[in-house]
Amino acid sequence: MTPSICFLLLSLLFFTSSTTGDLQPHEEGFISVVVSDKGLDFAKDILIDQAIASILQSQLPQIEKTVQVPLVGKAKVVLSDITINDIQVNSSSVNTGDTGIALVISGATADLSLNWRYSVSSWLVPIGISDSGTATVKVNDLQVGLAVNLRNQEGTLKLILLDSGCHVRDLSIKLHGGAAWLYQVLVDAFAGNIASAVEEAISKQINEGIASLDLLLQSLPKTIPLDETAALNISFVDNPVLTNSAIELEINGLFTARNEVLAPQAYHRGPDLSVSCGSRSPNMLTISLHEKVFKSGSSVYFTADSMQWIIEELPDQDLLNTAEWKFLIPQLYKKYPNDDMNLNISVSSPPEIQVTNKDVGVNIFTDIIIDVLEVGEIIPVACISVDFSASCAVEIVGNNLAGWLKLRKFSTHLKWSKIGKLHMNLIQSVTSAVLKTVLIPYLNSQLIRGIPLPILNGFALENARILYAPPWITVCSDVSFLGDNYLKQLPTYAS
Fold first, then answer.
1. Which strand ranges, in their side-by-side order, compose the sheet holding 230-233?
2. Based on the structure, what is the number of domains in the chain?
3. What is the CA radius of gyration of the chain?
4. Are residues 168 and 284 in the same domain?
5. Angle at which helices 191-219 and 37-55 cross, to 10°
6. Which of 101, 144, 247, 358 has the fewest beta carbons closer than 10 A?
7. What is the per-residue pLDDT across 46-95, written as a single tens digit (0 to 9) for each?
8. 456 three-class SS
9. Which strand (E) or helix (H) includes residue 193?
10. Collapsed DSSP state (helix, strand, coil) of residue 205
11. Do 402 and 394 touch, CB atoms closer than 8 A?
12. Do 97 and 208 sit in the same domain of this protein?
């Protein structure tokens, strides 16, 4: 099976979405992928185009027969180099239901070419007669169908071939050269064999494709590494839900620590998802993420101590010298005159994240320790607690869901001090500068990278819209195919 057919069968199955006895009943999916009829038709058309491209120029097995020809004698006829040169599809459909996914092609035509040769020997012609030439074959009514089902098997998808078939209803043969009797021999003795060879070749491609695709599905990763700290659990949860208008897949979707063994996590999704993409023209794909996807990320990064930063530079460098704090904190300047400083910022608890009707609300609780740098020694002198809230506007960057924080408000209070009481109202301006010029821009530089949405390589979101329906964020999008170059990078799997 060529990479193209294997890949496009995979795309159909994933765009028709990407556990039997293995299921744990308390597991839930926090990312939902729903594909509409429009998405199914899109995937079906690409699948057919790519499958045809891989079948063209295929050579069918040689056919050989010995026939008795009236007034001629016994003729040995050989058809060789039988090649499929073109296939045209007039009608196709993909349908889903409780039992599986069915793809049907009807009324297709195919053009074949072949070489023929024969030899005749009889008591009338003892020296024998032979000839050779070419012929073309037109398949006028080709029917192809397959039905498959998908089952969850330990977090991956198991592909089951339910039925498949190929039938040539009619074909015609055009002979180039040769004796008059040869045409009738080809029609009477070989038409059935040519039809059977075409049917067997296409059926073989289907069976090999399903077997290869099943291996490929089993090899899909269950996690996507995001960075040195976290990975995204993309294992499937429960069996795909197939209706007559859409297919839904549920994915775990929660963040995990790198190299962590996957196990059911103590998150509960709450009410089922009920988000519509609205009354506009239907989209191909709907991807919904529960706010607990983001909360799990907050927890993983906090637990890994990844929310700590040392600020050694500010846009106004002079602020990190005690001389600039002479009037803000006189005690600091008096005790440490003209010493450099840094700010040790750490998040004191996992950030609170909540999806609202218009954005994502974020509350972050930080401690800012003021350090004085004196003769190579770092001296903590005060700790200020800063609690701030921000709104996060979600956007699509490539195939990733990214965000952009905007500061709403903040509050400060003194947690401890070794330099006496501080006037917190005077500290507010410095805190505001740190948040607006350092911390928020840094967080945005990380958020804009985004988290990957469940889209296969070689496809891209197109005209995506974002809807907020607490506690869900939903991406409504069409999909574009990026071309054959992506297919060449895929491995070939033996059946």
1. 223-225, 230-233, 255-257
2. 2
3. 34
4. no
5. 120
6. 358
7. 888 888 888 888 889 999 988 777 766 787 888 999 999 999 999 999 99
8. coil
9. helix 191-219
10. helix
11. yes
12. yes
